[in-house]
Amino acid sequence: MGRLWTTFTAPSGEKYYYNLRTKESTWKRPESFYEDGGNKRPKLTREPEPFYAIPLVNDWFLVIDDIGGKYYFDSSTEEASWTLEDPESAELLSTIDKNKIILLVAIARGYNTNVGDRVYQEVIDDLKALRKGSAVEEEGEQEGEQESESIPSESEEEEKRPSGLIAGYSSSEEEENEIDSDVEKLNNLGDDDLPKENHEDESQIRNDFFQLLQRHQCDPYSTWSIQARKIQEDPLFYRITDDSIRESMFEEWCEKAINRTTNPQDLVDEDNLDDDSREEEEEDELEPLPFHYLAHIVSKANITPSTIFQDIKDQNKADFKKYKIKQFVKSKSQQETFVSKLLFYYKKFTLDERKEIFHDLLESHSRSIKKNLEQESESMRSTLSEEAGSNDAYAIETKLLKMENLIGLARDMEELANDPKYYVLGIKDKMIELMHYLTSYI
Amino acid sequence: MPRIRTNKKSAPEGFAKIEPTLREFELQLREVEQSKSSKLSSRANEELWQILRICHERSRYVYTLFYKRHAISKQLYEWLLREKYADKLLIAKWKKQGYEKLCCMRCIQTSESAHGNSCICRVPRAQLELEAQKAGKAVGFQQCVHCGCRGCASTD
To answer: Is residue A234 part of a domain?
Structure first.
């Protein structure tokens, strides 16, 4: 059933049709583009195929097809029928465990388990045993018939099943009831047997899942939410329905994959990790002045008499980014004015002269500095006595920021904090000068 | 603007293995940052919830790496905490009984809530359902207002 005709557009713009098989072309639209005429799409329904064949007596077979239908097949005449016309077979069938047959029907219909082959084998073995048994019985006395009479309902049911299941639940009330009970049994079977089977299957599923993880090269150093994306296309993924179970299996797999010699690791006390980290947190609260880092970049820069802001920026592009200058001083013109003013001091004055300028500036603000110091004299004393290693740039900066914080530069001395003269020294020199200046007050 | 850290120590050995995952988390956070927020005031917090969820997930990841899978060294773990890849206060709580699944710190801070009790997401689902059944209603609780948690009792 393939497509026979294809449509093409001629250079004139008109459509014409081409037959793929006969290679003829025509202007006339064919009745159907497909081989079989009317239907555009191939039929979705398909013929059920036999799934299990259970041998009975006298060449009869009980056949279960893959949509769960049941019929009987006589291999001597090669005829299939909905009813079992061989009394001996019917008798045999009535004596075997019906639940097993129902389970087989369920499996044929797609019930997910892997005990299927085993059950099938069991049924065949049972039947073999029964056949032998009945042969012996028949020799002695004809008890078999009585037996089959004693449980007629079951054999009846067996016979009615195929018509019911295939014909889409026939109309007779009696039958419906029976079918309902069967369907119920099927459903119950799922519920009852699941836990037990789960135990048997668990290791199997686990192995499958582990292999799945292996196959998709999951990263044991990653996390489930990310790795799950790799494997969720796979049908095996859905063997386990609960995501939390999947996750715990993944964790287990990771542990195995990493395969550390599991020497018990000592706990880490997160609450007070190191002294460092707590100190760091304290330092996090220190906020540098807006021009702090910009001034730092200028102090490190290579300054010639002709240097302008753009040169500084071009040379120190990485530093501008690293110190997030844009976020400290938002407008570019503000950056430029500040740097230009600062460059003036760097170009015109030597280090000693600049130190003097810095000192004079502090002197001119001495009143407000003194006022702020009065409240914080204790903590200032301890800060001043702190040793900052002469090579540890970060510690030096920390000390400077602490001192600036204590004299309240950011709080109520905006004038001083925005004065370019305050930034004429590099961080280290500034720290030393400021320290000398403050010690004279305390 | 906070101070810029210039004294960062380079990562201890083993960081390369977990780096892609951490980067993935960072990417997710970036995505939330760049996404457009809802104009409804009732949904104003939802972005924050997303961020808290991802942070929680990342903390959980670091936590399992060290305590469950034993995949990283103590040095690396401490480094990760110090660099704030994980919330160390949250992890400290996870080690305590009854707090194994805690969603965020704010949900147990009784001093920050209106009636001096912890957040509703800490109440076991079973208890909520029982109470709702007694009152003849359906469970009203969906997500908590602090972090969008849907329930983080250890029994859930």
So the answer is: yes
Using one digit for the tens of pLDDT, what is the confidence trace for A360-418? Answer: 998 888 888 888 888 777 788 888 777 766 677 888 888 888 888 888 887 778 888 88
Asked whether residue B67 falls in the same domain as residue B103, the answer is no
In chain A, the number of structural domains is 4
The string of pLDDT tens digits covering residues A134-144 is 655 544 444 44
Chain A positions touching B68 (Cβ under 8 A) are: 251, 255
Residues of A in contact with B21 (CB under 8 A): 219, 221-223, 226
Q: What phi and psi values does residue B36 have, to the nearest 5 degrees?
A: -80, 135
Is residue B3 in a domain?
no
Instruction: Give bridge partners of residue A62 from the DSSP assignment.
Output: A54, A72
* Rounded distance between C-alpha atoms, residue A406 and residue B84, angstroms: 28
Out of B24, B64, B81, whose CB is closest to A226?
B24
Residues in contact with A324: Cβ distance below 8 Å, sequence separation at least 6, in sequence order: A293, B1, B4
Q: Look at residue A158 and tell me if it is in a domain.
A: no
Q: Tell whether A13 and A92 lie within a shared domain.
A: no
Are B55 and B70 in a shared domain? yes
- Interface check for B4 against chain A (CB to CB < 8 A): the answer is yes
The CATH number covering residue A217 comes to 1.10.10.440
Q: Which residue has the tokens 């009143």?
A: A367
A50 beta partners: A65
For tokens 């500040």, the residue is: A338
* Last-in-domain residue among B69, B95, B121: B95
What's this model's pTM, rounded to 2 decimal places? 0.56
Beta carbons of B71 and A258 less than 8 Å apart: yes
Range of the domain at A354: 291-440
Instruction: For residue A250, give both structure tokens.
Output: 């993944």
